[in-house]
Structure formats: structure tokens, C-alpha cells
Here is the input.
Amino acid sequence: MDAARLQRRINLLGPWLRRAFGGPTVKIGLDAGLGCPHRTGGTGPGGCAYCPPHGAGAGHGGTVEEQLATGLERLRARSRGRPTPRALAYFQAYSATNAPASTLEPIFLAAARHPAVAGLIISTRPDCLPAETWELLAALARRRPLWLELGLQSAHDATLERINRGHDLACWDQALGEAQARGIRVVAHLILGLPGEELEQTNATARHVAGAGVWGVKLHNLMVLAGAPLAREYAEGALALWERERYAQGVAQFLARLPRSILVHRLAADPGPDPLVSPAWAADKDATLAAIAEAMESNHLEQGSLA
Ligand code: SF4
Here is the structure.
């Protein structure tokens, strides 16, 4: 019901996947064990302020081939006699380009060569992409559908500093340019409700990614997860989080500023393996999606209406 309401107003990923791959398509989350350069001995101490011990969490342990086998087996079991959905190998954990290209190549090829894998998704930081890695990604993208999920979170350098991202907007813009020069699709990861940000800032971020020409966006609200640096600030009462209605309004305003051609990959996130500290409402994704549909309808907004 809410999916249909949202689909009327937003260019959602689901219908695009069905068209592009000829049927239902499911992501299999993988952890290639590459870690993140920003968490340990990299560009800054302790990683991003919102990042919990398990990062985004993904994979079921073992090699990429083993994780794929486990994920595919679960897919088949869930399908119960219906055709098994196509699988996308989703290198989701931490920063999935955090190794020399010579190390990454066999890892990504193990997925690209798998007969059940229809495409690859690689999630990383903009400062973790040296020239050889770009060439590897370009070669993979010629062989299989591929997109890169590139963390930005905010287009405001003051916010990026506040949340200890360890890179600025110019760095992200440059990485996007490298991808675009090679025809690699980029999805921008963005968080609404970051410390010090109001609708004015998130609307400006929307304008930036729209102007930069991203292929897709992935949104979620700021969540405090156990073990993340922000959990300490939250416990000290130094952090104000957006309510669900405010987030829904923020998403509606954000999407209205994106051209309809940009694919919306996510509107709300699951907390992941680390316990959710706050806001409690983030645990109910369906209610958040309903609130976004309501915010768009009541304000007569749809994706692109203010672009
Ligand atoms: S959010 Fe991503 S880039 Fe930031 S510390 Fe965690 S894994 Fe690294």
C-alpha cells in the first residue's frame, strides 16, 4: 500500500531492478574482510561518529564464494518453489575497496564470474579509490552491471568535520568525476538529521548531488547505534535527533529537489547488527515509509517537483 503510494511519486529502485534484470532481484550482502582505513590507523581516529563496531554489517562469514553460496541457499529456501530471484553481489561491509587492486581483483571476480550473480554493488569511501582501483572497477563494469555506493552523508564541510568523516566535499566530488569519466554509476549515501543540520542544509545537499549528476541516492535518518562515538554524546545529552515526522518532511523536501531520473535506492535503513540506541522510531521502517508518503502527499510534492 505505502509502496504503491511512494512509487507514484518517487523513482524507486525496485521497479528499475525488475525492468533491468527481467524479474525480482535481491542483494546478497558480503563482507570481503577489507575493513575501513578510517577506523584504524587511517585518516582519522575512531572512524565516522555514527559508525558502530560492525559498520553497516554484511555477510555470513567465510570466503566470498562461501558467503554467496549461503546467501543463494537462503534465497532458494525463501522462494519455496517460485523462480529464485536474480542475485546482486553487494560488497557492503565497511570500505570494500580498502586493499590494493591486485588483492581486490580476485575478490570481485569471484562474484562477477558466479553464474547466479547478475551484477555487483561496491560500497566505499571517496578517499579509498586509487587509480588502479578505478581501472579495475571500469573493467568490471564492462563485464557485469555494477554500481558504486559512495559515502557522502552531507554536502557541508562543517558537518563532515563534525561527524569525523575524514574527507571533504571536494574529495567526494572528485571521486564522482572519476567514476563518471569511466561510465561507472554512483549512488550517494546520505544521512538526514546530522548534528547541526536543519532542512536548509539537507535541501542544499539535495541540490548538490542533483547538480553533480549522481545515478542514485540512498537516504536514512541519523541513528545512534551502540558502540558508535555518537552513543557517548547521546548519553551525555549533547545530541538532538530528528523525530519521524521531521525526517519524513526532510525526505519529501530532499526528493522534490532531485530530477526524476535519479533512482532512489533507500528511504529508511534497518539499524543493522549493532543495537539501536535512538531514535526508537527507526526500528519501524514501515511506519517511516508511511510517514514519507504522507509528507509528500500532504505537501503536494513528488520527486523533481522543485528541481
Ligand atoms: S561509516 Fe564507513 S567510512 Fe565511516 S568509519 Fe564506518 S566503515 Fe569507515
In short: The first helix runs from residue 2 to 9. DSSP finds eleven helices and nine strands in the chain. Residues 2-298 form a domain with the TIM Barrel fold (CATH 3.20.20.70).
